[in-house]
Amino acid sequence: MTTTPVVRAEHLRKAYGSTVAVADVSLSVERGEIYGVLGRNGAGKTTTVEMIAGLRRPDGGTVSVLGLDPTTHAAALHQKVGLQLQESAMPDRLRVREALDLYASFYADPADPADLLDLLGLTAKRDAAFKDLSGGQKQRLSVALALVGRPELAILDELTTGLDPHARRETWAVVEAIRDAGVTIMLVTHLMEEAERLCDRIALIASGRVAAVGTPAQIVALAHGEQVLRVRPAAPVADDVLLAALTGVPGVRDARVEDRALVVHGGGAVVQDVLVALARHDVRTSDVRLERASLEDAFVSLTGVGPDDPAPALQTAGSATEV
Ligand SMILES: Nc1ncnc2c1ncn2[C@@H]1O[C@H](COP(=O)(O)OP(=O)(O)OP(=O)(O)O)[C@@H](O)[C@H]1O
């Protein structure tokens, strides 16, 4: 039996002036899943979910959320979609319970604020002012506010950024509890570990496009399946001739010449295919080395971001690998 996806986005595109934030994004989120939108800073994740939430009008493509078009059914979707955006700010002196009561007043049938405080571990902080909350407590309050309208879909953007590992883990448990309560979740993150731990499926976004979609295991397998082949021609061959020999070879994701050796990143039967292609172009090889790519190599390759790209290098925050 097939069910209608909660979110269906097809060929979304959005530019800010000459900056193309989202070039071509298609994805579909099924009911009840935690769907990760994973990518580096600036990859286009926030712009994508803002279009899904109806906060930005796409320049191209279509979006359907719970069967409705967010640009024309904003009011109806406001009642059904909970949104937690990056770094939500509140007036300093607003108390936790007051914030919840205020947001609850926007909805016809809000959740019980006491239940939400309980779910998010904020009951002891109900009378605390916003400015006196820790980073993790502020984040959890922003999630409570996103849930107060009893949404069918919750969009959580960079939920654990800036949190220490303990607060991060607590927040992850909350996300799982929300899903167990029947809410479909879109989780925007640049933390590989977070996506791996929480998400049923992940769309890996790079340069405004979907680089890969799959379960965390599939994405990791894809990443770990990455190979790096280093081939040195037996006699000098011009760089462009070497690279031209690889045109159309399946499995090749990146190729360059380094110190007269051809360095190829790819997956599948890339080793065999590259050697056959070189032989076909009469390039004899004197030295062939196969390296298993690091996770960093694999993600660079999967996301199509080269080492000379101005994007920040991969970092490790706590134990999480950042993409
Ligand atoms: N309001 C805006 N005006 C102009 N450019 C913008 C605007 N919002 C985003 N951009 C640019 O669009 C690109 C994608 O940004 P976006 O925020 O969607 O990416 P992201 O993957 O969510 O990154 P981050 O995690 O850093 O928020 C970036 O180059 C960003 O600088």
Overview of the molecule:
It is built from 11 helices and 15 strands. By secondary structure, it is an alpha/beta fold. The chain folds into 2 domains: 209 residues, 3-Layer(aba) Sandwich (Rossmann fold), CATH 3.40.50; 82 residues, YebC, transcriptional regulation domain (Alpha-Beta Plaits), CATH 3.30.70.980. Strands 5-6-7-3-8-9 form a 6-stranded mixed beta sheet, with helices on both faces. Strand 8 and strand 9 form a beta hairpin. Helix 5 packs parallel to helix 6. The radius of gyration is 23 Å and the shape is elongated. The site of adenosine-5'-triphosphate has 12 residues, from strand 2 and helix 1.
Keywords for this structure?
323 residues; alpha/beta; Rossmann fold; Alpha-Beta Plaits; 2 domains; 6-stranded mixed β-sheet; 4-stranded antiparallel β-sheet; 11 helices; 28% strand; elongated; disordered C terminus; binds adenosine-5'-triphosphate
Q: Regions with pLDDT < 50 over 5+ consecutive residues?
A: 306-323
Counting helices, strands and paired strands, the structural category is alpha/beta
Note the run of SSEs as H and E: EEEHEHEHHHEHEHEEHEHEEHEHEE
Could you say how many structural domains there are in total?
Answer: 2
Radius of gyration: 23 Å
Report the CATH topology name of the largest domain.
Rossmann fold
Q: What's the CATH first level of the largest domain?
A: Alpha Beta
Shape: elongated
Alpha-carbon distance between the two ends = 35 Å
Please provide the count of β strands: 15
User: What percentage of amino acids are in beta strands?
Assistant: 25-35%
- As a percent range, the share of helical residues equals 25-40%
Count of helical segments?
A: 11
Task: Identify the quaternary structure here.
Answer: single chain
